[in-house]
Amino acid sequence: MSLTAAMRAYVVFLLLIQVVQGQYNWGVTYTSSDICAPEGSAVVLSCSYKHPSMTNGQQLTVQESFWYKVKYGASGDLMTDSEYRGRVTYRCQEKTCNLTITDLRQSDSAQYKFRFTTNQPGGTYTGYPGVTLTVTDLKVQVEAVSTQAKLECTSSCHVTDNLSYVWLKNGQKLSEKSSSLTVPANISRYSCAVGGHEVHRSPEVCEFTSYAPKPLNVSVNPSGEVLEGDAVTLTCSSDANPAANYSWYKKTGKPDPKPGPQLVFSSIQPSDSGEYFCRAENSLGETPSEDICMDVKYAPKDPSVSSDSSAEIMEESSVTLTCSSDANPVANFTWYKKNKDSDSQPFSKGAQLVFSSIQSSDSGEFYCEAENQLGKRRSEPFILDVKYAPKVPLVSSDSSAEIVEESSVTLTCSSDANPVANFTWYKKNKDSDSQPFSKGAQLVFSSIQSSDSGEFYCEAENQLGKRRSEPFILDVKVMKSRHSLTTMNIFRLILVLLVLIPLCFLILTVW
């Protein structure tokens, strides 16, 4: 079979996964999300995409489209990557684009994504989550049958029967091209490879005896830090004869083995963190692997604020606010107090905000921000409502000049308190205790009289206490115009008397 035929034969189509990126008919669909292939073979990664024909009244066209390998943040066209020179071809037509990679190597194991760019500003779209390719090496499994041995060329991937193989005995090619080979049980060295790619041959075998699984080899793809949402594949392999069966286990929780040499996470989550191991087993025994620790990193989840006080918060009490957020790595916390007139500024650092003797001025809206190197999130506002008895009340008058009789005068009592205070007015009596004079924050005299003069004070009260103001002296002046009129009348009366008395005396004398 030719190399081209082998490439056509080894195309793995898995569950169709449709991922739409953006809105309004923008999208990318991958034919498969995970592909496994043996070293030396070929694969085809396939996708289709869509976009509107018009946007903002202009014809929309695709300017560029390509596949790229996700590695170290790079996203360049795979055709220009020196690692793939001569091994990569595209077949793109009618909004489909197929990527063919030949002569597969284990270093090709990675996640691949498709991207297209339109003639509109910012019109670049990338398919998600992409296709995860796992390339495994070949190995020869041996089943001894009397004086003959049956050899099987295998990998940890599911391989189609039509793939062409090459067998080598003591380094020399044999004519057999199937995946199995029956040979005399003598001492010869055998290995296998995919047809046309003998450079990627399996390790040689020369002993045709049965044996339990040897120590296992476990790999993680991709290697390095694992982030939430990544596609991750754990692969387990072991030398065994007869061939081993594999199962994966998570050490925490109830035993729930997953059969197969691979454990695939298409979009790994924080709940998948933990220790995993695989077990290889055949009729001669079983062998467990070393533990693999999966530590999934993720940005902080929604932070929440809690208080150590479940009752009302009283002034001068001790109060601690705690900010919590699930994050990996562990988040750092910053506290903010909301300002009405300006942007909030950092108020404090750390998971806890402690008020050893809280004051009324500490009342307000607080929120915390959780941050690690993967992102940051803010909590909902937490209202800190400090309760306190009234402060010393102050009395003010709406009149800044002298208070004149019959004028309108309003006295106002004010006091900072939480809950809001109720007010009572008192007028000081010299001969007895002061009695309540009026209720309410204001004391109104619509036509004040001189009899209203005196010392007034107000009392502010809520359920936490009460306080009295300093006395306010109300000094009502009699109107000057009225006082002058009375003096004039007296003066006129005296003049009249001075005139009338002599006149009367004269009249009496004449009589």
TrEMBL record:
It comes from the Eukaryota. Residues 129-194, 213-293, 303-379, 390-469 form the Ig-like domain. CDD domains: Ig. The chain crosses the membrane at residues 490-510. Gene3D superfamilies: Immunoglobulins (2.60.40.10). Coiled coil: none annotated. The lineage of its organism: Eukaryota, Metazoa, Chordata, Craniata, Vertebrata. PANTHER family: B-CELL RECEPTOR CD22-RELATED, VASCULAR CELL ADHESION MOLECULE 1. Predominantly monomer of isoform CD22-beta. Also found as heterodimer of isoform CD22-beta and a shorter isoform. Interacts with PTPN6/SHP-1, LYN, SYK, PIK3R1/PIK3R2 and PLCG1 upon phosphorylation. Interacts with GRB2, INPP5D and SHC1 upon phosphorylation. May form a complex with INPP5D/SHIP, GRB2 and SHC1. Residues 1-22 form the signal peptide. InterPro entries: Ig-like_dom, Ig-like_dom_sf, Ig-like_fold, Ig_CD22, Ig_sub, Ig_sub2, VCAM-1. Keywords: Membrane, Receptor, Signal, Transmembrane, Transmembrane helix. This is B-cell receptor CD22.
